[in-house]
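Moderator note: this is an archived Q&A kept for reference. The question asked for a predicted structure of one protein chain; the sequence and the answer are reproduced below.
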Amino acid sequence: MSRIVFLNGAPSTGKTTLATALHQALTTPAFYQSLDDFRAAIQPEFWLRGRVPGLFDRFVDAYLSCLRELAGHGFDIVAESIIRPSDLPRYDELFGAFDVILIGITCPLPVLRERELHRTDRYNGFLEPDIALYDALATHSYELLIDTSGEPTETSVARILSYLSER
C-alpha cells in the first residue's frame, strides 16, 4: 500500500525545505514535487491577485488529484500541505485508502514573519501570516510535530525517518 507523508503547516514554516531534504534522504522511491514547482507550470502573471478568480483553489484540487492518482499506482508520496480542519473530509475522501502520515510543521510567529520577509518566490510580495490559519493548523492531531526553528533540518529528517521506520 502506498504511503503518503503530508508535511502540514502555515506558509514559511519550512515545509518545502524539510520535504526536499526528506525526499533526498529516503532509501525507497517516492514522488515529491512541491506545490510551488507544480504551480510554476502556469505563467506567473496569472497568479497575480484576482486575475483569474478561483485559480488557486482549482489548482490545489488538481494537485491533490494528481497525488491521489500517483498513490493509486503504487507510489509513495512526500507532500507539503496546508490542511485546515475544514479540509479534512476532502483529504479523507481522496486519501482514505492509503497509509497517510500527517506531520505538523511549525515555528514561532516571529520566525515565520522573518522568513516571509526574505522570500523571493511570492508573485504578490510579502504574505502577512494568517493568524487564524496558523492557530487552526496547531489544533490538528499530528503523528509527529516538528518545530523548524528548534533543530537543524538534518535532525528533523532523522526524526521523521525514525518514525517512518517504526511505523
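Archived answer notes: Residues 148 and 155 are 10 Å apart (CA to CA).
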